[in-house]
C-alpha cells in the first residue's frame, strides 16, 4: 500500500524500549498555566472571534528557538499523570509542549463523551489553531516546526485540523501550518479526508470505543499519493492504552479502558522518532 505502513506490533518485541523510555524523562518538567484565544473562524460572511481558553506550557532550558507540540486531550480531559508524563518526555526530547485545556474556561463543559461529542468537537477545532498561533508568538519557539498530538476525541480534532484545506475557514496568524501530526486511538470514521501532512496513528487491536478496523479501513481507502500516513496497531491493547492511571482497567461510558505498558512505551519510542524526523531533521540549529 504505497504511502501507508500498517504495523502489527508484537508485544514481546516492545520490551526492549521500556528502560530507555523511563530514563529519558526522569526530571519533572515545570508546567506553566497560560491563557490564549482560540482561532477566529469564517462563517459565511461573518468572522466569529475565538474563545478565551487555557493550557499548560512546558519548555526546555535555553533560549531556543525549539520545535514544539500542541497536545489535545480526550473527551474527559487529561489526567494529571498523563499531562506530567507528556511534559516530562517532550521537554527531555527538546520540545516545547502546550497542552490545551478546552474545557475549564467553557462553562458547563466537564466531559464530551456522550451526546455532546460532536458539538464539542466543532468548538475545539479553533483551539488547535489558537494554540499554534500562541506558540508562534513565543521567542523560544520555531513557528515553522510545530506538530499536533491528540488523544481519542482530541485525536479526532487532530485528524480534522491537518486535512489539506481545513485551515481555510480559520484565521491563522502569519499563514501558520502544523508540520506533523500524531493521533492516539482516534475515531477514524470521523476523518473526512487524508491528512495533508505526515501523520502517525496509534490504535489498540482490542479497542471497543474507537475500533482499529475503522482506522485500517479509512487509511486503506485514502489515496496512496500525498504525505505519508502510518498506522500502528497494537495486539492486546485497549482504548486508553497510553494512560498509566488506567491500571487496573476500568469501564467508562460502557467501554473498556486499560493501560498497556509495552504498547505505551513503544508508542513513545515511535513518537519521538517521528517528531525528530519531521521537526528536527532540517532545522540546522541543533535544537
Strand content: 15-25%
Name of the CATH architecture: 3-Layer(aba) Sandwich
Q: Return the structural class.
A: alpha/beta
Overall 3D geometry? globular
Order of helices and strands: EHEEEEEHEHEHEEHEEEH
Kindly state the percentage of residues in helix.
25-40%
Q: Quickly count the helices.
A: 6
The CATH homologous superfamily: Alpha/Beta hydrolase fold, catalytic domain
Biggest sheet descriptor: 9 strands, mixed
Give the distance, in angstroms, between the N- and C-terminal Cα atoms: 34 Å
Taken together, the total number of domains comes to 1
The CATH topology name reads Rossmann fold
Q: Could you name the CATH class?
A: Alpha Beta
Strand order of the largest sheet: 1-11-10-9-8-6-7-5-2
Question: Low-confidence runs (pLDDT<50, min 5 residues)?
Answer: 9-25
Number of strands: 13
Mean pLDDT equals 83
Radius of gyration: 18 Å
Helix-strand layout with pairing:
Layout: E1 4-8, H1 18-24, E2 32-37, E3 41-43, E4 46-48, E5 52-58, E6 66-72, H2 80-92, E7 96-101, H3 117-136, E8 141-151, H4 153-161, E9 180-184, E10 199-204, H5 212-221, E11 229-234, E12 250-252, E13 255-257, H6 261-280
Parallel strand pairs: 1-11, 6-7, 6-8, 8-9, 9-10, 10-11
Antiparallel strand pairs: 2-5, 3-4, 5-7, 12-13
Helix pairs in contact: 3-4
Amino acid at each position: 500500500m504505497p504511502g501507508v505502513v500498517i504495523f502489527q506490533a508484537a508485544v514481546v518485541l516492545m520490551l526492549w524500549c521500556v528502560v530507555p523510555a523511563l530514563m529519558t524523562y526522569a526530571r519533572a518538567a515545570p508546567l506553566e498555566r497560560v491563557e490564549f484565544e482560540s482561532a477566529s473562524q469564517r462563517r459565511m460572511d461573518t468572522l466569529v472571534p475565538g474563545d478565551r481558553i487555557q493550557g499548560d506550557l512546558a519548555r526546555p532550558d535555553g533560549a531556543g528557538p525549539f520545535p514544539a507540540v500542541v497536545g489535545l486531550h480526550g473527551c474527559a480531559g487529561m489526567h494529571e499523570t498523563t499531562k506530567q508524563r507528556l511534559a516530562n518526555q517532550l521537554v527531555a526530547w527538546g520540545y516545547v509542549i502546550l497542552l490545551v485545556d478546552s474545557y475549564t474556561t467553557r462553562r458547563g463543559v466537564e466531559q464530551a463523551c456522550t451526546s455532546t461529542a460532536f458539538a464539542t468537537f466543532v468548538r475545539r477545532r479553533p483551539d488547535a489553531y489558537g494554540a499554534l498561533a500562541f506558540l508562534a508568538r513565543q521567542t523560544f519557539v520555531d513557528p515553522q516546526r510545530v506538530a499536533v498530538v491528540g488523544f481519542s476525541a482530541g485525536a479526532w480534532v487532530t485528524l480534522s485540523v491537518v486535512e489539506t484545506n481545513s485551515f481555510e475557514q480559520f484565521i491563522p496568524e502569519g499563514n501558520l501550518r502544523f508540520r506533523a501530526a500524531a493521533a492516539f486511538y482516534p475515531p477514524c470514521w470521523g476523518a473526512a479526508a487524508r491528512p495533508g501532512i505526515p501523520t502517525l496513528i496509534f490504535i489498540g487491536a482490542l479497542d471497543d470505543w474507537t475500533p482499529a478496523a475503522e482506522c485500517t479501513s479509512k487509511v486503506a481507502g485514502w489515496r496512496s499519493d500525498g504525505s505519508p500516513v502510518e498506522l500502528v496497531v497494537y495486539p492486546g491493547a485497549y482504548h486508553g492504552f497510553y494512560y498509566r492511571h488506567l491500571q487496573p482497567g476500568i469501564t467508562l461510558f460502557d467501554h473498556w479502558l486499560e493501560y498497556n505498558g509495552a504498547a505505551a512505551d513503544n508508542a513513545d519510542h515511535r513518537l519521538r522518532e517521528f517528531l525528530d524526523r519531521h521537526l528536527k531533521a532540517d532545522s540546522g540549529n541543533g535544537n
